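Something for you to look into today, if you have time. Could you write out one complete protein record for me, on any chain you like? The space below this message is yours for that.
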Amino acid sequence: MKKAKKFVAWLLGTVMILGTSTTAFAAQAVIEKQPQDAVSAENAMAVFEVAVQPSEGVSYQWQQGVPQMQEAEAVQYIWTDILGADGPAYEHTVTAEDLTGIVYRCAVRIGEEIIYTDCVKISDARIPKITGTTENGIQFERLETNEFVLECSVQGQENWTSSGNMEGLEPGQSYMVIGRLRFGDGAVTAPGPAVEAATLGETITEPEEPVEPEEPVTDPEEPVEPEEPVTDPEEPAEPEEPVTDPEEPAEPAKPLIPELIAADSTSITVKAVEGQEYAIYTGDALPEDAEWKQGTETITFENLTPETAYTIVSRIAATETEPAGEPGEVLTVVTEPEAQIPPAAPDAPELKARTTDTIEVYTKEGQEYALCEGTPAEDQAWNWQAEGVFTGLKPGTEYTIVTRIAGTDETLPGEISDPLTVSTEKPAAKAPEAPKLKWRSQTVLEVETIKGQEYSIDGGTTWKTDGKFLDLKAGTEYEIVTRVAETETTGASEISPPLKVSTLREIIKTSADENQIKGIKAGQIIKVGKEITFTAAGGGMNITDPLEGDVRYVPIKWRGLGEGVWEKAPYTAAVKAEKAGNYILEVVFERQVYKDGKWAADGTVDVKSVKFKATVTGTDESVPKTGDETAPYLYLILLAAAAAAGIGAGAVRRHRR
């Protein structure tokens, strides 16, 4: 009721209609299928459907009617449009208020005309519907889904049953029966209201205590004189004689006429009556040597001749004190023609094709086919046809199909085959749009999840209800598709266009070994006074699309033949030696980590250096200048000593030869 009030407050423009209201009939449209009352429970699903002819140009709007008052057996409803319920079928999750009198209908509009369907309601499926009782049992109506179970409070709340019968009860006893719904996943609803049912038989009551007879109220002071009988002294009353007729003895009991139970080509069965015996014969008279048979429930005469008239007669059987009675009225039965053996059952039908309203099985010559909705009953009446095509069926509904060898003028129809159970397809929804990327990493891709849709990353081989895919390969492209998932009334939709997206590459962990000083080499000789330009290249500085956790090195300063600091690229500088000598150039690189969308130093530095020398000529002068002018003469002396040593060594070698 609270929910209904919220609808009324939200839709202030809703029109109040009394009862079932006045229906505006459109000349162009006809409602072919009215919605039906539903049997459900709170939090379960109820589905209402309407079919209109013609179906083009028609719009639908389902409405909810909340009862307001009742006067002179006419109920007033406030009708409100149900948001989003604008199709021929309306799926509704049942609330507690739905079970208290709320009704539903559909306003079908074609052009300017409106047709209102019948009002439908939702009954509480938990309330048992008693269909019959016996001396020791109670029968109740069960749901087709087999999700309805009952409980007898006398037996304890653990004894639930879904068979439709409760047996083993006491005759003449009253029981409280309650119900609940059981869902496919094992969940159950709360029990519903109790319904009283009594088994057949005499009600057992406690015997009443005997009532003490009341003593007559008398007055001892005034004795009551006895009343004298009123007689006529002139006409004395004659004593009455008992009414007996010794000359007319009681008539003997007559037997009941035999009652036929069954008959075929070689046997006849009749009902047995206690105290009677039965005989069978052919012709006009009962033979004197006829065999009389007795039984407790039935009497069966076997080994008879097909297509023959037999007479069955009964009489009161003899006892220890009385002889057998005279035969009574007879029963005449003609046995059936000689029975034929029907052909054996063929294999179960084989499915060929199916749609939302058609099922087709492969047709074999000489066989006939039949179909029923759901599971066939034990005494199922089949409508046989020569072709294996069945049309006009309900979408998304389970059917049973059987076959047999067809009968002819000379042969009987064959035994019925094993059943083929198959469901028609559900109508498919339109394909949704391609998925939209929500987040990605090296091993995870996630798309936005929409309720009622399912997602696949392997081309539709497997589906899942959420759009998050784990354990993927880094730096790899994938295609993600989606579709509207199958429901109780519709099939899965066509597959959407794919979303092509790649996982992120692996994190780049740059090593300090990649840091370089370019433009000057180790051991290089430069000319005094000439500028040399060098460049510092940090490892990972070529990362253009950084990811969280990437590492790079950036040059920040240099020293040797002067010093300098870099705040941004280009990381180059020019140096020159003012005099000859050995020199070392050092560059300091700062390690940075990409975090929270920006590069940040983590406090680690790496120093790379290059050793080189400067000469006056810019070439190798053998002895590096350090400012000492005697160095060239020393160098010449060393060369002369080396030459002398070489000449001596050669002389020794020649002498040895």
About this structure: Confidence is low (pLDDT under 50) at residues 1-27, 153-157, 624-631, 645-657. The helical segments are 2-10, 631-656. The two ends are 128 Å apart (CA to CA). The CA atoms of residues 342 and 414 lie 5 Å apart.
